[in-house]
Structure formats: C-alpha cells, structure tokens
Amino acid sequence: MNYDVVVIGGGPGGLAAALRAHELGLKVLLLDENEFLGGILPQCIHPGFGTVIFKKDYTGPEFASIFIHKIIEHKIPYKLNAHVLEIRNYSDMEKIVVYTSPEGVREVWTRTVIYAAGARERHQFEIGITGDRVSGVLTAGEAQTYMDLYGMLPGKNVLIVGSGDVGLIMARRFALEGATVKMVVEMMPYPGGLARNIMQCLNDFDIPLYLSHKVLEVRGRGRVERAKIVKIDENFKEIPGSEFWVDCDTVLISAGLVPKVKPLRNIGVRIDPRTGGPVVNEYFETSVPGVFAVGNSLVINDLVDHVVEQGELAAEGAAKFVKEGISSRRWIKISAGEGVRFVVPHYISGERDVFLNLRVQKPMDNVYVHLPEIGRKIKKLAVKPSEMLRIRLRQAQIKDVDEITVEVRK
Amino acid sequence: MKKQYICIGCPLGCVLEVEIEGKEVLSVSGNQCPVGEKWIREEIKAPKRTLLTVLPVKNGKFDTVSVKSSKPVPKDRIPELLQILARVEVEAPVHVGDVILHNPLGLNVDIVATREA
C-alpha cells in the first residue's frame, strides 16, 4: 500500500483534509489538477473567508495561503497538474487512484480516498438560453478567472443571468473596473445569493435586479450584441407581451453549481438527487467504504469555513477507517421532510455530536425546524434557500430511533 | 423613520431594523453581534468599503496580484483610489501582506497584497 489516504483536489476541503490526516499520523498524498494549490480560492479576491473558524475576515487567496503554507511546512507530498482519470475500488480496504501529470500516468494504492474535487458551473444550455453561437457568453467563474487571475476584462456591457453569489460578486468587479453592468436577471422571485452581496455588490453600484425574469435568447454576429428577456409568472410560465431586448456585449451565466461526482459514480457511489452529491454518513464517507467526499463535490456550501470543517471530519473518518476498518453498526437515517430541500449527512451513528446541514425549499419567516422522532423544535426568525441552515445535534439528544425527519414549518 | 438594512459585516447577513432621524441612528435591532451596530452607525454617517482589485505584475509567477485596502475607504473616495491604482504595476516577487502602495489617499490606508506573485 502506497498511502493511507489520497486526497483528490487541493481546494479548501482537500487542503484541510490533507493537513488533518497528516496530523493524525496518516501517510497522505494530495493531488490537484491546477498549476497551483487553493482550488477556486486564489481567484476569489473578495473578503468573507474565515469568519467562523478564524474569527477574521480574509480574502480567498489569503485564506488559501494559510493552509498552503502549512502543507509546505509539514512537507505533505502533493502533485500539481495531476488530473485524476479514475478511482478503482479494488476491495473495501484497497483503492487505486489513476492520475495523469507531467510525469506520465501513475497508479497509486491507498486505503482511503478523500474526494474534494469541487463543483462545476451550470452553463447557458442548462438554463434554456437559445440564439446565436457567439463569443461573449461565459460563466461567472470563467469571468473571474480572466479578471482576477489574468487581469483581463472580458467585456464592457454586461448582462448577468442568475443572482448567485459569484454573479453578484462579479457584478461588483465589472463595475469597479469600469464596465457597465446592465442588470442581473433572476428567474426566482427572490435573490439566489447572500443578502449582504445584494447590498454591497448591486445596491452600491445602482445595478438593477430583475426578479421573476428570464433570458430567452442571445443574439449577435460573432460577438454578443443583445439579449431577449421575458417576465415569468409564479409557475415560471412566460408572460406574453412582456419581452424586451437589452444591448450588451457580454452575458455572464451565474446559475449555480453542480457537484462533480463522475469518478465516484463510476465506482457505484450512491448519489442523492437532491444535492447532486453522494449519500454520506457523519464522517462524509460515501456508500463505498473508505471513500469520503467533502466540500462542493459533496454539497454546494455557502461558507468556506464549513468546507474546511468537512475536510477535517473526513480526515478523522479516514483515520478511524485505517485503524479500525469498516464499522458495522446500525445507522440512523436522516430524511428531508416538509419544507426541506435536502439534509447532509444522510446517516448518523448517534454516538457523537453532529451538525445537520440543510437548505429550505422557499423563504419563510417565524418557522421551526422540527425533528419529530426525537421531539426537538428549534425556532428560526427567517430562513431562505440561499443560506444553509446548520442544526447541532448533541449525542444526548439523539435517542434510540431508526430515522430522524427534518421538517421546516410553522 | 424606520429602515431595514442588511449587515455586510460577515456572511451571516443579519437584517437590521434601524430607526433613523437625519443622519442620527436612534436604535438598532436584529443584529446578532456588535459588528452590526458599529457598521450601521458608520453606514448612515459616512459609508465605507474595503477596496479589492488586482494589479499587473512584472516578471512574476502569475500575471496579476490581488490587493485590498488595509482598512475600509470612504465610498466616495473609491473612484479616485481606482484612478491611482490604474497606473500601478508591481515588480515580483510579491508576498501575502506586502504593502504595495503606502497611504495613497492620505487616509492612513495602505494597499496590501493578498496573493503571491
């Protein structure tokens, strides 16, 4: 066996997992497909990172550098430009990770895998935008790479589709760099991103937000010239006669993220259709023993701090697995009930304190999070889908039950 | 007059219920920590923002370095600061925390690197 744990992905989840696993005495290899560590963080030049775990407000690159310095200081082996081709589940206790890098194709044997490969952005065709195949249509994250890593402005008159956080943050970036942001168009009747980003990214620059609107088509010759927008009703049906055109040279798609799980799917890991990520237990171990998933490849997170926490917990799970093997126990199933879009993790042991991460289906005020099987009820003043709810379950509160349903209602 | 604001102190985004008279804050509620109250009092009197951008780098590992203002800058001075930064090119190597520009506006705010290059 070459390694105790191979960590796939050098973003915040992977960095934290590799560090914690090393601290716990495991033999670690960290793989990343980029030419630098940090994942998406180096291009997230805005603050808001580390407010939970460090009680400080770092920018993305600063936050990443704290972890990267520790990886280098502890001489934890890592490979850059290393693209994972395949994970093979040779047996419950033995995995093979196949990757290609400038050294050639390599196969490494490992007892466990922590998968932290992140997510991809939804693109124009997934949100039903038709029209001409023109340059100037890009995802918000691509625009961020152009601007904040390479220092290039990809357009001057920008239309933003979707009000997720990356889109809002890019609206501010474009506005600060002298471009005009025409508007942000959102299908839902409420914004997708954090409230603070509506305030400081749109309101500060008088950028209009069109809720309950959708972009139908993009037109131009060679380059984007204009886009057609329509108002939609509560059933997402287009309202005839409400169409209008907006002149722009760039269309930015900020329509959410999708966990990247293909290598996991290939080894038969069960996927939760609600999150798009794998079904996991409280250590974020998937349905394939010894394979863990953290960060945005597990579930789309709001805060990097929670991703770090997941990485550390998975490393602890990996250490337990390496030392004790597969645990055969009766798991308590956690299910999403009324008003809840999803809950992670999906199974808990009841032997330790856990955090349940959940998103609600729609914004609601003055509601309770109900856990009927264990008779708990937690009041929440306001909940919205854009903000992940975290419910702490203490071991003492988890009773001898088979299932715990999580509901959010009056 | 009662007004609602969203605190930008951290990603929690508390909804602040603020009672204002002119530029005077009479009461604040809804904040989960002291940052909210401090921020809203300043926001009403003289709004400030931390400036974040990237600057081109000569002979570096990367094409740009990301920078921030070491403290929030008055909102109305940001265009002026951006004009100054538009003429800056940084010589590599750059480390996290390096001061790129010392006190450009005379407000005791530096421009600091947040990434290596």
CATH class of the largest domain in chain A: Alpha Beta
Q: Total domains of chain B, how many?
A: 2
Helix content range of chain A: 10-25%
Largest sheet of chain B: 5 strands, mixed
Number of H/I helices of chain A: 7
CATH topology of the largest domain in chain B: CPE0013-like fold
Instruction: For the largest sheet of chain B, list the strands in their spatial order.
Output: 8-5-6-10-9
Strand content of chain B: 35-45%
- What helical percentage do the residues of chain B reach? 10-25%
Name given to the CATH architecture of the largest domain in chain A: 3-Layer(bba) Sandwich
The shape of chain A, in one word, is globular
> In terms of per-residue confidence, which ranges of chain B show pLDDT below 50 for 5 or more consecutive residues?
none
SS class of chain A: alpha/beta
Largest interface: A-B, 30 and 28 residues
Largest β-sheet summary of chain A: 7 strands, mixed
Mean pLDDT of chain B, nearest integer?
90
Distance between the termini of chain B: 49 Å
Number of strands of chain B: 10
Rounded radius of gyration of chain B (Å): 18 Å
Multimeric state: heterodimer
Describe the protein:
The complex is a heterodimer of chains A (410) and B (117). Chain A folds into three domains: 1-120 and 257-328, FAD/NAD(P)-binding domain, CATH 3.50.50.60; 123-255, 3-Layer(bba) Sandwich (FAD/NAD(P)-binding domain); 331-410, no CATH class. Chain A is 20% helix and 36% strand. Chain A has seven helices and 28 strands. In chain A, strands 1, 2, 5, 6, 7, 8 and 20 form a seven-stranded mixed sheet that branches. In chain A, strands 11-18-12-13-14 form a five-stranded parallel sheet. Chain A is globular and about 65 Å long. Chain A starts with a strand and ends with a strand. In chain A, 50% of the residues are buried. The model of chain A has no long low-confidence stretch (mean pLDDT 94). Chain B has two domains: 2-45, no CATH class; 52-113, CPE0013-like (CPE0013-like fold), CATH 3.10.530.10. Chain B is an alpha+beta fold. The longest helix of chain B has 12 residues, at 34-45. The mean pLDDT of chain B is 90. Chain B is elongated. In chain B, 17% of the residues lie in helices and 37% in strands.
